[in-house]
């Protein structure tokens, strides 16, 4: 059970920390169709699980589409972002945790 609030992360995107530990964090991102996760990078290793919806991801120089049930890893320092093609939810795990989300 989470005690963290759902917050606006960007236009059409909300974020909620689901679980938190010094070495790992699980976060839910809910997207409206057309919303984007802007290109960015961070020192954390990130795993992403597509709980629902459809997304077009950019990771480094590659682009790929994912849908419900897909998962992948984003290595530390790699520039990445996404566009939501159909409303959905991403579950991201970060190691170490994203202190900037607390």
Quick recap of the structure?
This protein has 102 residues and is mainly β.
Q: Can you summarize the main beta sheet?
A: 8 strands, antiparallel
Low-confidence stretches: none
Written as H for each helix and E for each strand, in order along the chain, the element string is EEEEEEEE
Overall tally of domains: 1
Task: Write the CATH fold name.
Answer: Jelly Rolls
What is the tally of beta strands? 8
Distance between the termini: 16 Å
Query: What structural category arises from helix and sheet content?
Result: mainly beta
Describe this structure in words.
It contains no helices and 8 strands. It has 102 residues and is mainly beta. The chain has a single domain, classed as Sandwich (Jelly Rolls). Strands 1, 2, 3, 4, 5, 6, 7 and 8 form an 8-stranded antiparallel sheet that branches. Strand 2 and strand 3 form a beta hairpin. The two termini are 16 Å apart. The mean pLDDT is 96.
Furnish the topology, listing elements before pairings.
Elements: E1 7-10, E2 13-21, E3 24-31, E4 36-40, E5 45-59, E6 62-67, E7 71-74, E8 80-95
Antiparallel strand pairs: 1-2, 2-3, 3-8, 4-8, 5-6, 5-7, 5-8
Pfam families: Cupin_2
Protein name: Cupin domain-containing protein
Domain Cupin type-2: 29-86
Summary keywords:
mainly beta, Cupin_2, RmlC-like_jellyroll, Jelly Rolls, Cupin domain-containing protein, 102 residues, eight-stranded antiparallel sheet, single chain, globular, 8 strands, Bacilysin_H2HPP_isomerase
